[in-house]
Amino acid sequence: MADVKVSVRNLIESDLGTPLRKFTGILDSKPTEDKQYGDATKGEKVRTSTQVHFNFKDVEPIETVEPYNFPTVTITLGLSNRTKSKYGVFGKSVADILDMQYSKEQLTPGSPTYIKPDARADIDSCIGKRMGLVMADNVDGRPVAPKLFDGRANDGKGGDVDTPCWMCYQIEGVGVAGNAGVSPNDQAYKLLDGRTAQQFKDSAVTDPIIRTDPGLLAMISMPVSAPTAFVNIAVKSGSFTTDTAGVYHRVKAS
Fold it and tell me: What pLDDT, on the 0 to 100 scale, is given for residue 181?
């Protein structure tokens, strides 16, 4: 039998469903299930809640409270249209990133090109894409836990309390939260400036913004000898030049 360290340190909460706290995975499906709560035979009010099971595959753990060696994970949230709910927090974080694919005019009410929220890309467009999720729990530098209503708070009177919630921080091919709409291509240009081809590749292949665009990542990963390698296209387009040391420099607009 393998030795197991017995400790009273680093105890974890057990009601979050998974030891994962930050991960990326491909959203495979999102089936729903209705669950009933309350026992009518005991005079309790019976209510029905719709649960959404977000099934992810090809999971890449980034932060965990214990080892996670499984290729899949399911994140279950109670469906709600309220912003102050776990689903609302998750949903807003997804919508904010999906909105990165639209121009400022398309997001501004009153603009001739304005697109109403219900006409924009929704969670269905994320199926088959790699997403990044993080637990907002204000631990180890993760986002602050939002305050949500809990009927058990204040001796049963109810009130808002810090509530750990899942949030989305990246969607493949769309964007990464907190980057003010910086596109993967813009990020690649930024990283290439002042670097050699190898230095650029080493930085770019692990960059979270660039990794949201598989096509761009493939071009960056190509050898410099390939005509369609990103660095070659950057030079041919006139956006960059190289010096005798092989360092790339961005051409400033005149």
Answer: 56
Asked if residues 237 and 250 have their Cβ atoms less than 8 Å apart, the reply is: no
Place of tokens 């680093």: 10
pLDDT, residue 38, reads: 80
Q: Does a structural domain hold residue 1?
A: no
Q: What is the mean pLDDT of residues 203-219?
A: 85
Whether 13 is covered by a domain: the verdict is no
Q: How confident is the prediction for the chain on average, in pLDDT?
A: 87
Is residue 195 within 8 Å of residue 248, measured between CB atoms? yes
Q: Specify whether 127 is located in the same domain as 193.
A: no
Share of the chain above pLDDT 70, in %: 91
Q: Do 109 and 163 fall within a single domain?
A: yes
Compute CA 115 distance to the chain's CA centroid, rounded to the nearest angstrom.
Answer: 23
Which stretches does DSSP call E strand in 70-196? 73-78, 130-136, 147-150, 159-162, 165-171, 175-176
The H or E element spanning position 241 is strand 240-242
pLDDT tens digits, residue range 142-189?
A: 889 999 888 777 777 778 888 999 999 999 888 777 665 567 888 899
Q: Report the alpha-carbon angle 117-123-125, nearest 5.
A: 100
Range of the domain at 122: 20-36+46-176
For the segment 81-90, what is each residue's pLDDT rounded down to a tens digit?
A: 899 999 999 9
127 and 165 in a single domain? The answer is: yes
